[in-house]
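Problem statement: downstream parser choked on a complex file, so we are re-checking the raw output for the zinc ion run. The parser issue turned out to be on our end (a line-ending mismatch), but while we're here, posting the original submission so the record is complete.
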Amino acid sequence: MSNYSVFLPSYSIGDDVYKEIPKICEAYGRKAVVVGGKTAMAKAREALLESVKGSNIEISDFVWFGGDSTYENVEMLKKNPVVANADMIFAVGGGRSVDTSKTMCDQTGQPIFVFPTIASNCAAITETTVIYDSNHVFKELYFPKKPATHCFINTKIIAEAPSNFIWAGIGDALSKEYECTFSSRGDELDHTNLLGVDISRNCVEPLLKYGKKAYEDAKAHRVSEELEQVILNIIITAGLVSVLVINDYNSCLAHSVYYGCTTLEKIEKNHLHGEVVSYGVLVMLTCDKQFKERDRVYSFNKNLGLPTCLADIEVEEKDLDKVLDKAMETGDIKHVPYKITREMIYNSIMDLEKLM
Ligand SMILES: [Zn+2]
């Protein structure tokens, strides 16, 4: 029998949640350095400094992460004496900056605490980081040995961020349940995968129920119960699934469609990851003939201004060859209950066009 460990993420959430920092972080030392994006650090700075006032924790500096999640930036941070001498790292920001600190701390062994300032993905609690090359092109996934020590989700700071992050975050989180249950369908699941797949079944309903109100509140920069539920869904539910299941179950056809679309310049320039993924969800549900679910998500997308047809993401029919070439190459559709052909994806896209 194999011996193995599972490290589950832990987190705190609330509109004044940074006040929990001293209690939770004290056991790990005294000196903390904040590493993050410039905007993110500016937004969180005051609340962070206030939270450690009069405690045993001292924030010794705020350090820019370098602009992208690259091995070069990881090395640059490791060489910074302020960072190297810190007892713990406070990683502040969105996906790329948090991933940079996660990769670095995996290599240095420093405890890392994560402070997401937007809710557009689940990077704050996953065990995976995305690495880019110096031209900002996807390079590879990196797998730290465990997730961050703790994650502090400040709903007030997240509500103050531009609302398109939540909007795209909803689109990305929509994919988790459908992709995970589809790609694991028919498999004999061991304990950890069974837990992960079952958690994924809790992704869609809360989004359909609270998504619209949460997006309205995000636009008005207002913390609400609905916004909190949606933030938890995007960061925690999707993140827990990703920590528990094998990589094969983590993404599927909706993401293949997204990667296909990234071959087009307009997608890279004008559209967000989760936005395009939410269109990919419609393609996937059509392909799998889950028409009832497809129609539910279709109306939801329409209602939220998420895409439902090619024109919404500025893709033209003549671009489809390029999109499908890339989509068919992706590993995301390798582990599926039946073979997904190029024709099946094309027909699903065309079926969606007819729904307009
Ligand atoms: Zn995604």
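For whoever reads this later: The first helix runs from residue 21 to 25.
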